[in-house]
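Q: Here's a chain of 126 amino acids. Please give me its 3D structure as tokens.
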Amino acid sequence: MGKLNLSLIATIVPLIIVAIGLVGWVLTLRADVTSANKEITGLHAEIDTMHERLDEEFNILHQTVDEEFNILHQEVDILRDIQSLQENEMRTIMADHSGFNEVLKELGKSGLLPSGERREYGGYSN
């Protein structure tokens, strides 16, 4: 019977050692998974914070671009108004010059210009 007990002990003791090792390994694995899960949760929180900051920065950038575009659009409108005013003034001046030319022609035909001058004013006869 001593031999049977010794044989049984020789079989059970390694199984108990393997079982204890397996339980230790499972507990270590569980701790590692729990730790990794906490780290992943922390990363998700950091990513959410970064997304919020990026959204805020994007909104600020969008508002700034809109404001700059509106200012630029207003400046272009002002330049168009100035150009329109300049074109109107140029037409008025050109019409006045054309009228001066006609008056000079009539004065020249009637002989009222000194020394029979026959020059054209502004070259508008073309």
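Q: Can you summarize the key feature?
A: Helices lie at 2-110.
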